[in-house]
């Protein structure tokens, strides 16, 4: 009887260790995908820097760039709202009406892949002077001055570069075992 109880305890211990190893492995793959997403976001920022100017005032769908904020885009595909556009992250040919991300990027020797979408945080495409765009707090549009600035002594006045824009970069990275990670980065150029 004691031998049976000890055997059952040993089997339970082995299963527990095996499950823990799987969980730790999955966490490692998730961190690997998140690291790959950071590398893809850096490539998206490089795209923005290389195309500053009038190019970014209109959609560049082949590059995964959209000149408006894209509030009606379901980035992860999990909202279930039929009024929101889906993103064709996998490159499926039967995804009608889907938003197209960038071309697939291979990272870490091909073990990870990623795609990104860049949206300019403006109400519509066009020159920044003709559409409503997100502006920093304390900028000329909110009254300027030293509002929101922490400091002692002389007043500090924050100046805004007239052509600066905010961009949202959403990256979907996939690593081994199909682990997927989404990241979102906001940049100002």
Would you write up a description of this structure?
The chain has 189 residues and is of the alpha/beta class. The protein has one domain. The chain has 1 helix and 7 strands. The strands form 2 sheets. Strands 1, 4, 5, 6 and 7 form a 5-stranded mixed sheet that branches. Strands 2-3 form a two-stranded parallel sheet. The protein is elongated. The termini are far apart.
Contiguous low-pLDDT stretches (5 residues minimum) are 141-145, 151-160
Cα distance, first to last residue?
Answer: 73 Å
| Apparent shape | elongated
The total of beta strands comes to: 7
The whole-number mean of residue pLDDT values reads 81
Counting helices, strands and paired strands, the structural category is alpha/beta
Strand content: 15-25%
Largest sheet: 5 strands, mixed
> Helix count, per DSSP?
1
In N-to-C order, the SSE pattern is HEEEEEEE
Radius of gyration: 23 Å
Number of domains: 1
Helical percentage: 25-40%
Write the layout of secondary structure elements.
Blueprint: H1 2-50, E1 65-66, E2 73-74, E3 85-86, E4 105-107, E5 112-120, E6 166-174, E7 180-188
Parallel strand pairs: 1-5, 2-3
Antiparallel strand pairs: 4-5, 5-6, 6-7
What is shown here, in short?
By secondary structure, the protein is an alpha/beta fold. It is built from 1 helix and 7 strands.
Characteristics:
5-stranded mixed β-sheet, alpha/beta, two-stranded parallel ribbon, single chain, 189 residues, 1 helix
